[in-house]
Design brief:
With 239 residues, the protein is an alpha/beta fold. It contains 9 helices and 7 strands, in the order H-H-E-H-E-H-H-E-H-E-H-E-E-E-H-H. It has a 5-stranded parallel β-sheet, with helices on both faces. It is globular and about 55 Å long. The termini are far apart. The relative contact order is 0.18.
Amino acid sequence: MTAGEKYFEELKIILEKICHTQMDAIEKAAAVCAKVIKNHGILYTFGTGHSHLLAEEMFYRAGGLAAVCPVLEEPLMLTHAARSSQMERLSGYAKLLLDEVAPLPESAMLIFSNSGRNTVVIEMAVEAKKRGLPVICITNMEHSVQAESRHPSGKKLYELCDVVIDNCGCTGDACIEIYGKKSGATSTAAGAAILQAITCRTVELCGGCAEVFSSANIDEGEQMNEAYINKYRGIIKPL
C-alpha cells in the first residue's frame, strides 16, 4: 500500500469515527445555526493559519448558507506564514477584530483551531460570548488536552465553547509516517466534512426557510445568488 493509499484509509477511519462519536455535537451545532437563521442572525466563522480555510468553507459556495460571514484577517492567514504564527498568539487582537465586525444580535460564532491553544482563538471565544453569541468550535481533542495553553488564563478553546466538535485527528495533525517523518494532515478534510454536515442539517431544520447559494456556474444559480448578495452586502463585508 502506498503512502497515498494509507492516507485515504486513515481519513476514512477518521470520518467513520466522527460519524459514530460526534453526531450529538453536530446536531447541537446545527440546532444553534438553525435558530440563528430563523431569527435573521449571521453565522460568523473564524480560524487562523490553515484553519482559516474552514472559516471560508461555509462562505459563498454552492449549497452553503447565505447568512455566513467569515472573519478574515490577512496577518492571521498564510500570506506571511511565520508571522501569522506569531500574530495568532497576540493578546487583544480578537477584540479588535470583533469590534470591527460588530456582530448582529441573534447570531453565533464558529471557531476552528486544531490545537485550540493559541491566544487569538481563545480570546475570540471569550469576546463572542461577552456579546451574547453562542460559540461552536471544531478542534482536535487528542492534541488539545495534551497541549499547554498559550493564553494567560491557562484555558484552551474547548473549555470555553458551548458546543465542541472533535475532528478526531491525531496529535500534530499529520497521520502517516514515512521514513521517520509524519505527513498527511487531516484537520482540513475532517473539518470541512463536519461543516458540510452541519450545513445540511441546518437547512433541514429550517424547513425550507434557509437561504442557500447555488453554483454560480449554472445559469439559474447566478440570479438567485445575486439576490442574496444584494440583501447581505454591507452586513457581510467579504461579499
